[in-house]
User: Fold this.
Amino acid sequence: MGVGLLGLSGWFITASAAAGMAGLGILFNVFAPSAMVRFLALGRTVSRYGERVLTHDATLRALSDLRIRLLEGLLTRPHRELEKLRANAFLNRVTADIDALDGALLRLVLPALAGWTVIALSGLLLWWLVHPSVALVAGLGYLILPTLVFLIGQRIARKPSRQVEAAMMACRTRLIDLVAGRDDLTMYGRLEAMAAHVRGAMVRHSHATRRLDRIQRRTGLGLDLIGAALTASALGLGVRLVQTGEISAAQAAIGVFAALALAETVAPVRRALAEIGGMVQAARRVLPAVAAQASKERGAEGVPGAAVLEMRGVGYRRGGSGAELFAPVDLSVAPGETLALAGPSGSGKSTLLLLAAGALEPSEGGVSWGGRPVGAWSQESLGRSIALVPQRHALIAGSVAENLRLAAPEATDEMLWKALEQVCLAGTVRARGGLGLRLGFRGAGLSGGEARRLVLARALLRRPQLLLLDEPTEGLDDATARAVMAGIRAALPEAAILMAAHRAAELSCADSCLQLTPATA
Assistant:
């Protein structure tokens, strides 16, 4: 619309002037061109608005799907690798990468495709309406020269663009660490040192930004010179063709103004250069995770009500090729039974729980649940039938009720109170404001033992057939620990329970105990 508007306006003005000078103004029809100018002007505004709505909507939908595929792909990583992820750094990185790909679509890919299309169509129209030589100068000139400028510019801009993106990420992460850990940093006298790290990241970001700005300005100058040169070339060709009588002055004006308008199609090159480094780095990080996305989940299958957990000759090697962590394990846990895993720290108790949950694969032997290998069940089926409570609790900032309803969104208040009573936490919650008690970041506001019991209550709300517990009463006195274990069994009388235990209060509540031994023993 913009190229058509400027080209038609140039033709209209020139043709009107020529008709007036020739004394034919009374015969010149100004109404049709005027109507077309108004149509193109209004159409340009409407189409620009429509373009923004459609491309942004399509891009946001694509990025929404990409976020889901990215997270699904990340979930295919080994469990031990996922455990090492720091929440703030990971979320910052994912957010920054998706934003960078957002920029790649909206400020690079779509503008480039639209620009090339407009240039090609404009070249064809100039070939028809003006002259082939003018079409070749404007069309090929805008297709080739700005593309070369971009290819050269992106090579120069890639490093400072990466530096800008890396410095911004470092600044965000360090600032979050500073705010989240300000109390500890103050206590140990490290607050000013951490603040200096934040300022250092800001300084690096500022220096890299200035270098990138210089590259942008030089690229913009190059694009402006290309636009001016092509417009001047179209003008010179037009004058020569008018002098030879091959075209009229009004036709020549179309070529000149169209060449001038086409400069708008290459304007996004400048901004894309500023972000090309971040776009490339984001694509390199995101695409492997998306490519690793697991195949579509099978539909959820019902696990038999009398499902039994069995391990036969199970062994596990760290990293898949290291030394065996423990001697081959054979065990069986039937509904209503509780089996405790005992052994010193590092003997593999937590690893066995992860193997039972299907989060890790054994290096030898097999793990079956409900008569089938754990890996044969869909993740949805395992999620419905198995609940794992690890040593590190996972609570969110919000109310007690919100934390509990992560496991059972439809649970009533009565159900929540019952779960709290079963883990001996109801009295504490009532005394501090009830289910609406607000917790801070990662459950701040509860002691370690209280947070652990809240996580246990959440697991009970899942009503699992297999409950996996990793030192469930850590931080509790013996009397409370025994009461909690009794409450868990009372809440899930038919569930199979496998737990890593080291306290007498936990071992005494088990029906049997399996002592893990090192592989070399």
User: Anything to note?
Assistant: The chain is about 65% helix and 10% strand. The radius of gyration is 34 Å. Residues 191-243 form the longest helix (53 residues). The chain has a mean pLDDT of 83.
